[in-house]
Design goal:
There is one protein chain. By secondary structure, the chain is α+β, with helices and mostly antiparallel strands. Helices cover 36% and strands 16% of the residues. Among the domains are: 271 residues, no CATH class; 88 residues, no CATH class. It contains 14 helices and 14 strands. It has a five-stranded antiparallel β-sheet. A three-stranded antiparallel β-sheet has the order 3-2-9. The protein has a two-stranded antiparallel sheet with strand order 1-14. β6 and β7 form a beta hairpin. α2 packs across α4.
């Protein structure tokens, strides 16, 4: 791998021409086969588009709800108030940080004893490339896309481009707009899909410079406007300026017969022209996409996100809140019955403090009574929110906005650390399933990354290893990453780090273990664990080597040998490490 140099606009399509082993193998097709290939790609694209139209319509609705944009056709109550309660947004933004709490650590697990040493090299390479690809930012968007729409997709490929200005030679990852992603309607996963098509827009000039493509002279710039993207932009009244220098590409990854039997291929079509036709350039022959699902649906590729199950409840909540607002408005600004020819000036009926209405006949004017129903609407709103919380698993305690008095939490004491831990543990059970789905996707990501590294790292490279002693640079050669490995995500590396819960657990453990000290249990690691939950304190500095003394003795300087705490001059060392009152009290205050 060559030295990494940042570039502003890296190519998206992989250029595979580094070595004889990985040299591109473009296929020259005659006119008939050229037409057949174009028709095949366009037909596959149309089949997927028609199948995915209902999903795309739902995605537009979910996008509106996440952006808290009111849709009149979905609201049963058409009143004066137009409030949208951002509950769908709050649900997504509450779940997201609970699923991404730390940098995931991909590990290579050797399948053979001879690969043990190389497994560590692969793991270190993964961690370095994770930062190189800026996967921290991509992962957040990937998971958010998954939570909103139910499914998220990234593309993982090797990017190599070398000229006089810059050199890029590394794996790359990009988030795919779901409106540009078309999969075999029969597929349930990326791996079992017969094909996947990515739609993209590219500058015609850059296509002609890209060695991946054979661009005919007759190819003209033309981009078909996507109806769903236009609708998404129209929600906010956005109109993107037309870029007349671009061409729309359909990049097909999947099974096709180029003349030697059906095999994994890549076909790229633009405006009825076939720009690229060759076998899949990756040795692992996988399609370069990784999908993530929030909640899986058996025998379907598209999953269920956080918004879909609460869609109708969100609209109901909007109706109830707007009805209450209108009710209050009518009470404060009441309506009037006015007798015809009663001599009432309707301009005087505008509600204002100290206002006066002049009439010729005292029977000419009568207020229309508006009953106050706001108290019942609060009960209705509570029921709706309870339904949403039961559906999403996001209650007030998990979101950090209340004391956890939501559904399914009766009897829990939220005033103690133990009670908080019990409630949060119950909530975490819902998120563990989602975390498993994320980790499954990261395993697929790691498998593809491993295959790319083993194929394209063809020279010694330097990788950065971050540790307690700072950063260390090590050389990794192609032979250092060879072998067969399974990929795993280090247990707990994706778990959010809740400091309060960790601290409460540490206190609980110390309180439990103190009575067992007489059996010879060393409390020092447990105390250090508790101290380490306070990041501003270094536990190693507190545990300096002390003189060894026997119980009942004092040591120079008035230091308690058991606790390391200062003592009064001549104070005796206690016979046992009794439970400190401060720790006993602290175990129940969170």
């Amino acid at each position: 791998m060559a030295k990494q140099i940042k570039i502003e606009d890296p190519i998206v399509e992989p250029t595979i021409d580094k070595t004889e082993e990985t040299k591109r193998n473009p296929v020259q097709l005659d006119k008939k086969k050229h037409t057949e290939a174009v028709d095949f790609v366009l037909r596959s694209y149309k089949d997927s588009l028609e199948y995915q139209r209902p999903f795309f319509q739902k995605f537009l609705a979910f996008y509106r709800m996440y952006r808290s944009m009111r849709e009149e056709t979905k609201q049963n109550y058409a009143g004066r108030a137009k409030l949208y309660v951002p509950y769908a947004f709050a649900t997504v933004e509450t779940v997201l940080p609970r699923l991404i709490g730390a940098k995931p650590k991909l590990e290579a697990i050797p399948r053979e004893v001879s690969d043990i040493d190389n497994a560590k090299n692969n793991t270190n390479t993964f961690n370095y490339e994770w930062d190189l690809m800026k996967m921290k930012e991509i992962l957040k968007l990937w998971v958010k896309q998954t939570l909103i729409y139910g499914t998220g997709v990234i593309k993982l490929y090797w990017c190599y481009k070398d000229n006089d200005e810059y050199l890029i030679d590394q794996p790359k990852a990009e988030l795919i707009d779901l409106f540009d992603f078309f999969i075999d309607p029969q597929a349930t996963t990326v791996k079992d899909a017969r094909y996947i098509i990515q739609r993209a827009e590219r500058n015609l000039a850059s296509l002609k410079e890209n060695s991946n493509y054979i661009v005919p002279k007759t190819l003209t710039t033309s981009v078909e406007k996507d109806e769903y993207k236009l609708q998404r932009d129209a929600i906010f009244g956005l109109v993107k300026p037309e870029d007349k220098g671009k061409v729309q590409l359909l990049e097909y990854w999947g099974k096709y017969d180029l003349g030697k039997g059906e095999e994994e291929c890549i076909l790229t079509v633009a405006n009825q022209s076939l720009l690229r036709a060759e076998p899949n350039p990756y040795l692992h022959k996988e399609k370069p996409f990784v999908s993530m699902v929030d909640t899986q649906v058996p025998f379907q590729f598209w999953g269920i996100g956080e918004i879909e199950p609460i869609e109708s409840l969100q609209y109901e909540l909007n109706d109830v809140r707007n009805q209450r607002m209108d009710n209050v408005t009518l009470i404060l600004n009441r309506m009037w019955k006015v007798k015809k020819d009663g001599g009432v000036d309707e301009e005087d009926l505008i509600s204002q403090a100290g206002g006066v209405v002049h009439v010729d006949d005292m029977g000419a004017l009568e207020a229309i009574a508006t009953p106050d129903v706001t108290s019942s609407s609060y009960n209705e709103e509570t029921l709706i929110k309870t339904d949403i919380q039961l559906t999403s698993g996001v209650n007030d305690l998990i979101s950090g906005t209340g004391q956890g008095k939501g559904p399914g939490q009766a009897g829990a004491n939220t005033s103690t650390a133990t009670g908080i831990m019990l409630l949060q543990e119950a909530g975490n059970a819902r998120f563990k399933y989602k975390l498993d789905n994320i980790e499954d996707s990261l395993v697929n990501f790691g498998e593809q990354l491993l295959a790319l590294n083993q194929q394209f790292i063809d020279k010694s490279m330097q990788i950065r290893i971050l540790g307690k002693d700072g950063e260390v640079w090590e050389d990794v050669k192609p032979e250092d990453i060879k072998g067969k490995y399974d990929i795993s995500v280090e247990a707990g590396s994706t778990q959010p780090m809740n400091k309060s819960v960790r601290r409460a657990e540490a206190r609980e453990l110390l309180t439990t273990m103190i009575p067992l000290q007489k059996m010879g249990i060393d409390l020092k690691p447990i105390i250090k664990n508790l101290i380490n939950t306070y990041e501003t304190i270094n536990s190693d500095e507190l545990f300096q080597t002390q003189p060894v003394v026997t119980p009942g003795e004092t040591i120079n300087g008035g230091i308690n040998a058991n606790t390391g705490a200062p003592t009064a001059p001549g104070m005796e060392i206690p016979q046992s490490f009794d439970r400190p009152a401060s720790i006993a009290a602290g175990a129940n205050n969170g």
